[in-house]
Write a structure and sequence with these properties.
279 residues, ten-stranded mixed β-sheet, 8 helices, globular, SBP_3_CS, signal, Bact_solute-bind_prot3
Length: 279
């Protein structure tokens, strides 16, 4: 009798353990990128004017405002947002693994990325350019870049880095770092000749108080970079909801208000809100 009771107790414990593990594996019923009443959203933490985590722990920028607007339309208050840092090279993995519900992080829509994730939008159109030191006049055109002595800096996993080697400067010495702030330090210390990425990102860095007067944009429109909202492959329902939110943001004037707020002080002449094509 004692043996039977012990066996029963053992089975009960084992059953409870299996149920517990099953619940954990299923996320306790929560959706991918969500935790109960919270929503995980990927942004950049180091891009002034777009996605920046400030020293006091606040989050600011155009992408942040877009993300907040979308979250609100999905039924989440601002206090329910959990911001996740989304480095360029990790964005597809974060979406595929369910670490975030969606990503708003200067995320250019292209065919290679669409093999792994889906996009809503675009919600912004940028162009690749270069940031150089204010006293440097050596870069006047695209032709000046394709030289082995030219040290260009960009970020691992970014379309800007891919464009350099594939399109306009295959001979250049491309140096890749994990974040744009590292490239900026290299530019200031003359370890690199130029930082290349989207003009929207470069304008944000140049406008920072500590950088004013040190750098300037070269004024080269090297590519079109349509920013999209990255989300899980095949989630057509979420894509429609986000597209609806983006259209509403443009129609009610919130898009223009956010653009003026974050790009105006930098003197950056941004393009009007683009037509949504990812449907």
């Amino acid at each position: 009798m004692l043996t039977m009771n012990l066996r029963k107790a053992g089975l009960t414990a084992a059953t409870a353990l299996v149920l517990s593990l099953t619940a954990t594996a299923c996320g306790g019923g929560g959706e991918s990128g969500s935790d109960g009443d919270k929503i995980n959203i990927g942004i950049k933490f180091d891009q002034p004017g777009l996605g920046l985590k400030t020293q006091d722990g606040e989050y600011t920028g155009f992408d942040v405002d877009v993300a907040k607007y979308i979250a609100k339309e999905l039924g989440y208050d601002e206090k329910d947002i959990v911001w996740k840092q989304a480095p360029s090279a990790e964005r597809e993995n974060m979406i595929a693994n369910g670490d975030v519900k969606f990503i708003v992080a200067t995320y250019t829509i292209n065919d290679e990325r669409k093999k792994r994730v889906d996009f809503a939008g675009p919600y912004f159109l940028a162009h690749q350019d270069l940031l150089v030191r204010a006293d440097d006049n050596t870069v006047r055109s695209e032709d000046d870049l394709d030289d082995s002595s030219m040290k260009l800096c960009s970020v691992t996993g970014s379309t800007s880095a891919q464009n350099v080697k594939k399109d306009f400067a295959p001979k250049a010495n491309l140096i890749k770092y994990g974040g744009y702030s590292e490239c900026l330090t290299g530019l200031e210390n003359k370890a690199v000749d130029a930082l290349t990425t989207d003009d929207s990102i470069l304008a944000g860095y140049a406008a920072q108080k500590e950088h004013q007067g040190k750098f300037k944009l070269a004024g080269l429109s090297l590519s079109d970079e349509p920013y999209g909202i990255g989300l899980k492959k095949g989630d057509t329902e979420l894509r429609k909801k986000i597209n609806d939110a983006l259209e509403k943001m443009v129609e009610d004037g919130s898009w223009e208000k956010a653009a003026k707020k974050h790009f105006g002080p930098a003197g950056y002449e941004y393009e009007p809100a683009p037509e949504i094509t990812e449907k």
